[in-house]
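Hi all, long-time lurker, first post. I run a small reading group and we've been trying to get comfortable going from sequence to structure in the token notation. Rather than ask abstract questions, I figured I'd post a concrete chain and ask someone more experienced to write out its structure so we can walk through it together at our next meeting. Sequence below, copied exactly:
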Amino acid sequence: MSFECVKVEFAQELERELNKANTLWEYQKEETDKRIVQIRKLQKAFADACAANKTYRQQEMKHSPEHLTALLQHCEDRLAEATLALQAAFAATDPYADGAPDASAHDRLCNEIAALARPWAKPHSENK
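-- Answer (accepted) --
Happy to help. Here is the structure in token form:
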């Protein structure tokens, strides 16, 4: 066998090995791309499940007796603050709200405010 023949045979063997390597690389790249897509789908499904769980837990917490009690207390505190503010408005405007026909614009405004604030000037328990 001549040197040229061995050289050609060696080149052909190298080309076959290169083709096998390229084919294997393409297959692995394709499989890797498929796995990446699969991993992304799983990540999205996991994120969706986490979001659903978070929403469920938030709703569960919102409807818990502790949360509802705290919410009721917050509303009662705000109502007490509003009552105090309206009592102060009533106390400040009632002296001017005599309903006289010659009332100034300020007196008429005080009359309107006092009329609106009068029910709230009493403690909340008396309005029931």
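A couple of things your group might point at:
The chain has a mean pLDDT of 78.
Residues 65-123 form one domain.
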